[in-house]
From TrEMBL, chain A:
It is an enzyme of class 2 (transferase). Its EC number is 2.5.1.18. It comes from Musa acuminata subsp. malaccensis. It comes from the Eukaryota. InterPro entries: Glutathione-S-Trfase_C-like (IPR010987), Glutathione-S-Trfase_C_sf (IPR036282), Glutathione_S-Trfase (IPR040079), Glutathione_S-Trfase_N (IPR004045), GST_C_Tau (IPR045074), Omega/Tau-like (IPR045073), Thioredoxin-like_sf (IPR036249). It catalyses: RX + glutathione = an S-substituted glutathione + a halide anion + H(+). Residues 89-220 form the GST C-terminal domain. This is glutathione transferase. PROSITE patterns: GST_CTER, GST_NTER. Signal peptide: none annotated. Coiled coil: none annotated.
Automatic annotation (TrEMBL), chain B:
Residues 88-206 form the GST C-terminal domain. It is found in: Cytoplasm, Cytosol. It comes from Musa acuminata subsp. malaccensis (Wild banana). It catalyses: RX + glutathione = an S-substituted glutathione + a halide anion + H(+). One of its GO terms (cellular component) is cytosol. InterPro entries: Glutathione-S-Trfase_C-like, Glutathione-S-Trfase_C_sf, Glutathione_S-Trfase, Glutathione_S-Trfase_N, GST_C_Tau, Omega/Tau-like, Thioredoxin-like_sf. The keyword Protease does not apply. This is Glutathione S-transferase.
Length: 265, 219
C-alpha cells in the first residue's frame, strides 16, 4: 500500500472517537504520527485545526485538517481505497449511516447517562440502553444485518468501528456501576459480535487495556459523586451547577463535562 | 405505489431537503403527506420503526431515513447527473462537516430563537449571529457553498431560508446585517426551481412558529 503522504492525528487516549480513527488507520495499514491531547486543555494545534468544536479527533493529511469522527472515517475510506470499510451499494451505505447516527445520537448518550446518574435516574438510563440494544439485536437477528459476522459483513466495516469503539465502555460501566447492560441471554447476537470484534488483532492494538479504562472510569465516577450534593436522589451528577460552585468546582465540573462527552459511544 | 415515494410534511425543512435533491436530479416520485400532528400512517411506522419520523424515502420498497442520509443516498443512487457531493475526498469531507454543522449548530440554535424568551433568547441570538458569521466565512465569495455548482451544503441549508423571517422577527435582528453574503446566497437559492418549489412561504413558516411557540408555552 503506497503512502507517500503525511498523516498526523490528534486524539485522547480514553476517547472512543479517537479509537475509531486509530482503528480505521490501522485497518488501512497507514502510518501516522499521533499527538495526545488533554481534552480540558486543548493544544494550539487542536484549536487551529478544529476551531469550531475544539475537540479530538482531528486528522491532518498533508497538513489539511478533517474533523468529526464520522467525517474522518469516510474521508479515510475514500482516500485510501484498499480494504474498504464502506460497501459500494447506496442502500447499504444509507443503512450503515443510519445506525452510526443511532450509535452517536441514541445509544452513546444513553450509556453516558448510566455513568453520570444515580438512583431512579440511573435505572431509567439503564432501561434506555436496553431499549436501544434491543433495536440493534433485532437488526442482527431479522433485519439489515441478518446472518452477518460483522455489521460490515465478513469484515469489519464502518458501523463495526463506530459501535465497537465505545462498546467496551459497557463492560467497564457494568463493573464500576454494578449494573447489567449487555446480558448475553437478552442480547446474544450483539454480545457475540462484540466478543468477536474485540478479538480482532487491530482492535486489540487500538483499545486501551481494560484495567486502565476501569481505573479511569472509577476516578471520574468518584469525582462526580464527590461534587454532587445529594447522591441518593440526584438524577444527573456532573451537570454544571449554576452560580453556586466555587471556582475550583467550576473547573472540575467543566472537566467532567468534557470527559463525559469523550466517554459516550 | 411509484418506484420512489417520499413520506413528508409540507413545512418540514428536512423533508424539503429531500424534495430539492430529487428535483435537482430530475427524479420522478410520489409525495405523501404525513399528518405529523395526528396519527402516523402504517407505512411510516413500518418504514421508520426506530424514530417514526419523516422524511422517509422509499425506493423500490426499501426505506431510507434521516434527511442528510437520504440526500446522500439520492446522490449515490442517481450518480449520472447533477452531483451534489464533489468528487474529491477532501472537498467531500468539508461538505459533510458543514452539512452536519447546519443540523448541530444552525438549526439547534435557530430553534432556541423562538423557543426561548428574555435573557436566554438574547444569549441564543448572540450565539446564532456567531454561527451565521461562520457560515459567511465558509461561503466567502462563492456562488454556492458547493462552489459554482449547487451542492450538499446548499441543499442542507436552503430550506431554512424560509425560516430567516421567523428568526429575525422572534429574536429582533437582521440576517442581512449580520451575514450579507448568506442573505444574498439565500436569494440566489430561491431563484432555483428546485428550491422555490420545495420551500414554504416565510409567512406560513411564521404561522407554524406561532403554533409551536404556544405548544412550548412561550408567548
Amino acid at each position: 500500500m503506497d503512502q507517500s503522504s503525511s498523516l498526523k492525528f490528534l486524539g485522547s487516549w480514553a476517547d472512543s472517537h479517537t479509537h475509531r480513527v486509530r482503528l480505521a488507520l490501522k485497518l488501512k495499514g497507514l502510518v501516522f504520527e499521533y499527538q495526545e491531547e488533554d481534552s480540558a486543555n486543548p493544544s494550539s494545534a487542536l484549536l487551529l485545526h478544529n476551531p469550531i468544536y475544539k475537540k479530538v479527533p482531528a486528522l491532518l493529511h498533508d497538513g489539511r485538517p478533517v474533523v468529526e469522527s464520522l467525517v474522518i472515517l469516510q474521508y479515510i475510506d475514500e482516500t485510501w481505497t484498499d480494504n474498504p470499510i464502506m460497501h459500494a451499494d447506496p442502500f447499504e451505505r444509507a443503512i450503515v449511516r443510519f445506525w452510526c447516527h443511532f450509535a452517536d445520537d441514541k445509544l452513546g448518550p444513553a450509556v453516558g447517562l448510566v455513568f453520570s446518574s444515580a438512583g431512579e435516574g440511573q435505572k431509567a438510563a439503564v432501561d434506555q440502553v436496553h431499549e436501544n440494544l434491543k433495536l440493534l439485536e433485532r437488526e442482527l437477528r431479522d433485519g439489515a444485518f441478518k446472518g452477518r459476522r460483522f455489521f460490515g459483513g465478513d469484515n469489519i466495516g464502518l458501523l463495526d468501528i463506530v459501535l465497537g469503539c465505545g462498546s467496551y465502555w459497557l463492560a467497564v460501566f457494568e463493573e464500576v456501576m454494578e449494573v447489567k447492560l449487555v446480558d448475553p441471554d437478552t442480547f446474544p447476537l450483539f454480545h457475540a459480535w462484540l466478543r468477536d470484534f474485540e478479538e480482532q488483532k487491530e482492535v486489540k492494538e487500538t483499545i486501551p487495556p481494560i484495567d486502565k479504562l476501569l481505573e479511569y472510569a472509577r476516578g471520574i465516577r468518584q469525582m462526580m459523586l464527590s461534587l454532587s450534593t445529594d447522591t441518593t436522589t440526584a438524577t444527573t451528577i456532573g451537570a454544571p451547577a449554576t452560580g453556586s460552585t466555587t471556582s475550583n468546582n467550576d473547573a472540575a465540573v467543566e472537566e467532567i463535562g468534557l470527559l463525559q462527552e469523550s466517554l459516550v459511544l | 405505489m411509484k418506484a420512489v415515494v417520499l413520506l413528508d410534511f409540507w413545512a418540514s425543512p428536512f423533508g424539503q431537503r429531500c424534495r430539492i435533491a430529487l428535483a435537482e436530479k430530475g427524479v420522478d416520485y410520489e409525495y405523501r403527506e404525513e399528518n405529523v400532528l395526528g396519527d402516523k400512517s402504517p407505512l411510516l411506522l413500518q418504514s421508520n420503526p426506530v424514530h417514526k419520523k419523516i422524511p422517509v424515502l422509499i425506493h423500490d420498497g426499501k426505506p431510507v431515513c434521516e434527511s442528510l442520509i437520504i440526500v446522500q443516498y439520492i446522490d449515490e443512487a442517481w450518480p449520472d447527473r447533477a452531483p451534489l457531493l464533489p468528487a474529491d475526498p477532501y472537498s467531500r469531507a468539508q461538505a459533510r462537516f458543514w452539512a452536519d454543522f447546519v443540523d448541530v449548530k444552525f438549526n439547534e440554535c435557530g430553534s432556541r430563537l423562538w423557543k426561548l424568551k428574555g435573557e436566554a433568547q438574547a444569549a441564543a441570538k448572540e450565539e446564532f449571529i456567531g454561527i451565521l458569521k461562520l457560515l459567511e466565512g465558509e461561503l466567502g465569495d462563492k456562488k454556492y457553498f458547493g462552489g459554482d455548482a449547487f451542492g450538499f451544503v446548499d441543499v442542507a441549508l436552503a430550506p431554512f431560508v424560509s425560516w430567516f423571517y421567523s428568526y429575525e422577527t422572534c429574536a429582533g435582528f437582521s440576517i442581512e446585517e449580520a451575514a450579507p453574503k448568506v442573505a444574498a446566497w439565500g436569494k440566489r437559492c430561491m431563484e432555483r426551481e428546485s428550491v422555490a418549489n420545495a420551500l414554504s412561504h416565510p409567512d406560513k413558516i411564521y404561522e407554524i412558529v406561532g403554533v409551536l411557540k404556544k405548544k412550548f408555552g412561550v408567548e
